[in-house]
Predict the 3D structure of the following.
Amino acid sequence: MDVIRRENPARVAEVVGRVPVTDADGVDAAVRRAGEARREWAARPIGERVAVLWEAAEAVSGRAGELAVLLARESGKPLADCRGEISFALTYLRWVCDNAPRVLAPAEIDDAAGRLVVRRAPYGVVGCVTPWNAPVILAMVKLAPALAAGNAVVLKPSPLAPLAVSEVAAALPAVEVVHGGAPAGRALVTHPAVRKVAFTGGDAAGREIAAAAGSMLTPSVMELGGNDPAIFLPDFALSGDDYERLVMATFATSGQVCMAAKRLYVPRARVAEFTEAYTAAAERVLVVGDPLTPGVTMGPVISGPAADRIRALVAGSLSRGGTAVPLGRAVGDLESGYFVTPTLVTGLDDQAPLVTEEQFGPAVPLLPYDTEKELPARANAGDLGLAASVWSADEDRAFDLAARLEAGYVFVNTHNRTGMSLRAPFGGVKRSGYGREYGEEGLLEYVQSAVVHAPAAFRDGGAGLPATAYPA
Ligand code: NAD
């Protein structure tokens, strides 16, 4: 049996753990087991299901410290971030437990002509394929609502961070985990007994999975990449703390976050002031090193190819006339891992690959503008539309521009995790995907409406419909 050996991206000689690769027969067996588990699970009242999920949250919470260390070692994310990810995943699971019974309750339509009930029916077995950059929370935003609704789940995490999320999934009922790369993912999303597919990841895999699921008429939710602009209006007023938050909005998880600030639009007249304050803030808060070293805020990137890709994007930027400004401070040995120097790049045109592509790594372009009129078109350029941010001393002005941005989520005076809300739907527009996670919409993603109707015309004493009648 093939095995995935996951190395520590901060010390690549160290193997953090191993998981077996699941072949097509193994995926089939996992889907069948999930199908069996789901019969008993779906038959339970939702109150019982959320009670079981709540207990699972308690069990994982008791192991959160140990799981955070495992997550840091397999993903290269700083330990504090890993603790935060696990705690946020449990907060979200509890939010689902609190809200699913209300949101997924059958709704009675006030229909004078009879009894008309809309049930929220689970799909059956849901197939989830997830990435490595936030493996626990990105699985939990699928698992929690799917399970609360009465589905069973087969999860295929990324082979680049399969360990901590497998431990979390093992604490949940009606969940099977399969391992491997694209072949295991394909076997899962094309399995005839999988009734819904939930995917988070890159554009290329997303297109292939959406097409494969579509060929089976299996509905899907797609959370894909973003190339998110952070726009500073001419009146922006940032404190030192704001600059620090902004720096981390790009460089948390070494820039490998779908909704990271990936393009910075700054009024030309204030570029010098911005650059100086930004680099000073980075010097204070951006500490590159081993994820387990206290005080480190940026670890390595996920793999050798990812490091090569980012370095090539920066080198290509220099050859187009750009200037690289290295940021932050390094601590300890950076030679043994996939470390990339965090970099601000200035002097680029809008056609530079670092501007047009999702870099998904620790390099960000600073792009001056002359008039606010340029902003919507420049910010909306390209196919992606996940998130964006607008920074202004005048909140109304920021909201006005936000309404003209093609993005599923616009942050005002912050960006990235600090602007998320469990209660709000999250997802992309344009080629950043479809369907939503979080909020009530994220719960409704895992049910289908199923109506039960007893028309008054045919109930006791009803006269029936006239032969010519058509329901109005
Ligand atoms: P990826 O697309 O390479 O892989 C994601 C998952 O899909 C992995 O489990 C992988 O094994 C699997 N996979 C890859 N090809 C497949 C195929 N053809 N069929 C079935 N499964 C397949 O993405 P990644 O490198 O793990 O993650 C980075 C991308 O994810 C970035 O583009 C990022 O923006 C995006 N992302 C989006 C969100 C969001 O919420 N919108 C969140 C995090 C990451």
Remarks:
- Residues 129-133, 138, 156, 158-159, 181-182, 185-186, 189, 200-202, 205, 208-209, 223-226, 258, 358, 360, 386, 428, 433 surround nicotinamide-adenine-dinucleotide (CB under 6 Å).
- The first strand starts at residue 3 and ends at 8.
- The CA atoms of residues 224 and 432 lie 5 Å apart.
